[in-house]
Design brief:
- Three copies of one chain form a homotrimer.
- Chain A has 138 residues and is of the alpha+beta class.
- Helix content of chain A is 30%, strand content 36%.
- Chain A has a five-stranded antiparallel β-sheet with strand order 1-8-3-5-6, covered by helices on one side.
- Chains in contact: A-B, A-C, B-C.
Chain lengths: 138, 138, 138
């Protein structure tokens, strides 16, 4: 069995993080699938989906970390060609990853207590984000 | 068809690496699935599952690398709030990734000769780790 | 339903990038699967599959970035043991990831306009790369 749905939300620009765990839980519930996997995908190359503890400290630490290692201020070839100011956004999101798969057991995602499914905006301006959740199993 | 099982093991703290390829092979064999995928997931946000050559050199290099780029010694907001000394563990494991999917062909995972399925402990103390393997296909 | 196929191509050595989106589209078309996921896997531990905008600027920026953060010139334990000059290749590819899953809708991969499925060579010499595409769904 396969069940797929989309949802969307607004982000506030670089570093904005959204806990999307409940959205994924709802999609799994609607699928009626008890055992399998749920795949969550960000449509677009500058948004990230990952597993992290969703708490206010890490919500500052993660954007700071990626801007320290992949800084907006470097001279990028992408910037030289396109002048849209978001070369670092592309590099950050491609490295961190635009998708995540979690197991489904008894109709729910299997997660640790401090492990949430989170969207991280890497683009430099507010975006409408479209996510695709695909639940497979039986 | 879907087959799911859990297994657990003890880790020795930060940087400890375990080759879990044979555990995944066994799960696939028990599933009787010949063609599809196997998804391996670390329950908890400070443990990593990845593909790497499991040999003693890289077993030192990878923990050194992640501690160089995401050092324990920085001032993290997570640490300021929670004082559990593992902010870097969260950031490392969220970036490296807590899950991996590999293809299954003829009832076995498809891997290169020097490509193993490996668990990396990013937390600072020994942990009991719970992994979920989900095999899907036919 | 599950459909699996392999394809291969030659790379030119470190930093060489190939847009493999059309290969994945063709596999999905051959599978006749309309809704589900496609999983793309690099057999071998020094090649990467990721989502990125495939354009000439980022094709220089990404290899430069990973060589800046995980440089070929450091003293690695892997190098000391094996002397094959590619310790950084292993570390880069294990961190960036050797596989990607994308959703399939109406018989096509769901991707943003500037989001392609791309292979990145991290090994230091030209390689023949074998990729496995597994399409699952209905």
């Amino acid at each position: 069995m396969v069940f797929q749905e989309r949802f969307q939300f607004e982000t506030a620009g670089h570093g904005d993080m959204h806990d999307i765990t409940s959205r994924v839980e709802e999609a799994i519930a609607r699928s009626s699938i008890q055992t399998g996997t749920a795949h969550i995908f960000n449509v677009g190359s500058t948004g990230v989906v990952l597993g992290i503890e969703f708490e206010s400290g890490l919500m500052k630490d993660l954007p700071e970390l990626i801007n320290r290692l992949i800084p907006p201020s470097l001279a990028y070839n992408h910037e030289e060609a396109w002048h849209d100011g978001n070369a670092h956004s592309h590099l950050q999101a491609s490295w961190l990853g635009q998708e995540l798969t979690v197991p489904v057991t008894e109709g729910r995602p299997v997660l640790g207590t401090w492990q949430q499914i989170v969207h991280l905006e890497c683009d430099i301006k507010p975006r409408t984000r479209y996510l695709v959740v695909t639940v497979m199993g039986e």
